[in-house]
């Protein structure tokens, strides 16, 4: 049994107990082997826990109480925008006419749902400055991959088949190079300059006839706005490439500046981040893509279009890169994001960016006397600290992150971007109050003091969690990925 926890569900198991009672089978029973290949039929009874319904409920409730999320505590995960999810979004997503509709229904039966999808596309066009939108991709990384497939298809359609390189900054999100590789493209890294922005001279060296696209987020992963974005646009467009906008950091610039106006040709958005859909647990996510008109013919099919006063699903998209997600994407997340956008309005979305930027700069300025700030200019929605000085005194960034758990905080992103030594990347979002920010700041300052006064309490953290400090080497080399019933049997 783990320290401070109730018994595991297998430890609760008692032979003969059960949590349900099924009615007697009223149809003729057939031998399983007559309908299922024998190789798929279990030869021994599954060793499932035998447990009463009340104990089952307690088991899952306890597990849920162990989770950390934006509803339970501060979640300053840099580059991930873990903001509050308004509960009105959930109520709208559960309206029966939406929740009970099915994408295979006739178009005439789901006009309301199709209208929501179409109207959402129109809102995102306005927010991004793009000409066309597809809501189909299931998450940001899939949106990246889909957009790169479209850019590659565009070049191929023009006979430009040698454009196989994607330029990615050294501070980029890890999904950028990964998406490029999965799309069958080669990755070329462009350096950052001493201001944390794209090194223009190096960009001129790496761009060329093989350039398919450059992948950027602006502000970038360091939380810094790319001041030379227009020159970057001219360099890449001048070489025949396209500009791709990673929308993970859009929270900093909504209603301020649009990717389309900066010169980007394609963009993905994270509805489950920027637009308050639930985030985490493996999904559901939503990563719509927007493109300029010359890329529009290659959008995933089907498309949701307006036909007079009606809305329809258009499957005839001859140059489409094909379907990337079942049906139209994650409709429930569209509803949540749509509710958020309509609730906030243009002025509200602008205020979101105002407060996100204000919160990040406030935190950075309060912490710069304790932790090293490698890029001291004003940041946007997030910023990076370095614990390089703390490392010299005996505690690494990882130790500080583990110690934060003892105070009820989820740690920020650590060791990323990789071009900052002992990096911590912090994004407070606009939804956190000053008192919360001050509490987190004071805790980081306290941990810094502990390094001098009681180093072991930092190095041995966390102390209050169900599972304490893991052996990192063993966890990496010999991970335990499967539950073992034999361990429970031996304990009994």
Automatic annotation (TrEMBL):
Q: What's a single GO BP term from this record? A: glycine decarboxylation via glycine cleavage system
Q: Which GO terms describe its molecular function?
A: glycine binding; glycine dehydrogenase (decarboxylating) activity; pyridoxal phosphate binding
- Summary of subunit composition and partner proteins: The glycine cleavage system is composed of four proteins: P, T, L and H. In this organism, the P 'protein' is a heterodimer of two subunits.
- Its protein name is Probable glycine dehydrogenase (decarboxylating) subunit 2
Q: Which InterPro entries match?
A: GcvPB, GDC-P_C, GDC-P_N, GDC_P, PyrdxlP-dep_Trfase, PyrdxlP-dep_Trfase_major, PyrdxlP-dep_Trfase_small
Glycine cleavage system P-protein N-terminal domain ranges (all copies): 44-304
The keyword Oxidoreductase is annotated on this UniProt entry: yes
């Amino acid at each position: 049994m783990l320290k401070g926890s109730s018994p595991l569900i297998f430890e609760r198991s008692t032979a003969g107990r059960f949590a349900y009672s099924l009615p007697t089978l009223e149809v003729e029973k057939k031998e399983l082997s007559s309908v299922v290949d024998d190789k798929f039929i279990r030869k021994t009874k599954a060793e499932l826990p035998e447990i009463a319904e009340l104990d089952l409920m307690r088991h899952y409730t306890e597990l849920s109480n162990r989770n950390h999320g934006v509803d339970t505590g501060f979640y300053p995960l840099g580059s991930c925008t873990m903001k509050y999810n308004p509960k009105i979004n959930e109520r709208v997503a559960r309206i029966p006419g939406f929740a009970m509709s099915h994408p295979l229904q006739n178009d005439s039966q789901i006009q309301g749902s199709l209208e929501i999808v179409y109207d959402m596309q129109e809102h995102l066009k306005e927010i991004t400055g793009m000409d066309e939108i597809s809501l189909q991709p299931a998450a940001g990384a899939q949106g990246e991959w889909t957009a790169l497939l479209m850019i590659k298809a565009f070049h191929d359609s023009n006979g430009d088949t040698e454009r196989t390189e994607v330029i990615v900054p050294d501070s980029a999100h890890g999904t950028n190079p990964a998406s490029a590789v999965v799309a069958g493209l080669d990755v070329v890294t462009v350096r950052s300059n001493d201001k944390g922005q794209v090194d223009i001279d190096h960009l001129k060296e790496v761009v060329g006839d093989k350039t398919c696209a450059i992948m950027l987020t602006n502000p970038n992963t360091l939380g810094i706005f790319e001041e030379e974005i227009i020159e970057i646009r001219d360099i890449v467009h001048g070489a025949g490439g396209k500009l791709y906008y990673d929308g993970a950091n859009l929270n900093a610039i909504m209603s301020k500046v649009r990717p389309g106006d900066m010169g980007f040709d394609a963009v993905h958005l994270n509805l489950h981040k920027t637009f308050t859909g639930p985030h985490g647990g493996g999904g559901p996510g939503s990563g719509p893509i927007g493109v300029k008109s010359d890329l529009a013919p290659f959008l995933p099919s089907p498309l949701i279009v307006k036909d007079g006063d009606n809305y329809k699903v258009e499957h005839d998209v001859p140059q489409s890169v094909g379907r990337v997600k079942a049906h139209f994407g994650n409709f429930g997340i569209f509803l949540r994001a749509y509710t958020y956008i309509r609730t906030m309005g243009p002025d509200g979305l602008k205020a979101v960016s105002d407060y996100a930027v204000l919160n990040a700069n406030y935190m950075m300025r309060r912490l710069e006397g304790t932790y090293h700030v490698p890029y001291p200019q004003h940041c946007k929605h997030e910023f990076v600290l370095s614990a390089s000085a703390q490392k010299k005194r005996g505690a690494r960034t990882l130790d500080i992150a583990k110690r934060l758990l003892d105070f009820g905080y989820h740690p920020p992103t650590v060791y990323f971007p990789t071009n900052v030594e002992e990096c911590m990347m912090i994004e407070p979002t606009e939804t956190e109050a000053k008192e919360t920010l001050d509490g987190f700041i004071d805790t980081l300052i306290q941990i810094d003091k502990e390094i001098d006064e009681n180093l072991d309490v930092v190095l041995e953290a966390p102390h209050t969690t169900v599972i304490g400090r893991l052996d990192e080497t063993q966890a990496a080399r010999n991970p335990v990925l499967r539950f073992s019933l034999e361990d429970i049997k031996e304990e009994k």
